Amino acid sequence: MPVWLEAGFWGLFAGAALVVGAAVGWYARLPARLVAAVTAFGSGVLISTLAFELMDEAFRNGGITASATGFVAGASVFTLLNYWLNQKGAKKRKRSGGQQPSEVDDPGSGTAIALGALLDGIPESIVIGTSLLHGGAVGAVTVAAVFISNIPEGLSSAAGMKKAGRSRLYVFGVWGGIAVASGVAALAGYLVFGQFPPSVVAVASSVAAGAILAMLVDTMIPEAFAQAHDFAGLITVAGFLASFALSKVVP
Question: Which residues, including other chains, have CB under 8 Å from residue 54's CB and lie 6 or more apart?
Fold first, then answer.
């Protein structure tokens, strides 16, 4: 399989976890605290990955100035776009309870939620694509981390969408579309950044890391704490440790 096609495949594979999570959130009646616990675990997985995979690699290839600048830039861009979408009705897109607005209560919020979900997933997918630039082998830890974290993301958001009165077609259309977009983003990450030296790829990785951390704090961690309460921190630590251990076992 050509490497560029492999990049798209792994991006699509990781993005498909959103559909799996959405299916569980739509068809299963899971306790709110269990959904929050899974979300907390996924948050810990991503925090470990962006720290030990993305930022560490960005520092090695680009130095502290480039990696720090990219990190802040990624968080800033995400925050600004997220703020704009929040004003349109996407603020509670990851909440599994009855907090999400319906289209009747907030016209246009459906589009904002879909765009917000897309914004959340693109940085992760681009990183999957760029991971193949180093020796032609996908970053297994990165793919595993994104896949694991995508399941609770799709689960909690789909459960909230259902309670807000969104249709099944809307819910699975959103997550199916984002899964496809994840594959395209991974493919683009490989093709675009393959034309640049490692220092530029390092900056791109740090930008993605900053965006991912901002996304976690703004969307996933609030959902986890709202229901898991005092145990959210411990469960997040478990996710962090699982990803850290995986990064040391998998070459």
Answer: 127, 142, 205, 206, 208, 209, 212
From the number of C-beta atoms within 10 Å of its C-beta (0-12, 13-18, 19+), residue 230 rates as: exposed
- State the Cα–Cα distance between residues 21 and 43, nearest whole angstrom: 15
Give SS3 for 180: helix
The predicted-structure confidence for 201-248, as pLDDT tens digits, reads as follows 888 889 999 999 999 998 888 878 887 777 889 999 999 999 898 888
In 3D space, the residue among 164, 196, 161 whose CA is nearest the CA of residue 175 turns out to be: 161
* Calpha distance 55→61 (Å, rounded): 10
Residue 81, both tokens: 């776009």
d(CA 56, CA 64): 10
Q: Is the pTM of this model over 0.70?
A: yes
SS3 124: helix
Beta strand extents in the chain (DSSP E only): none
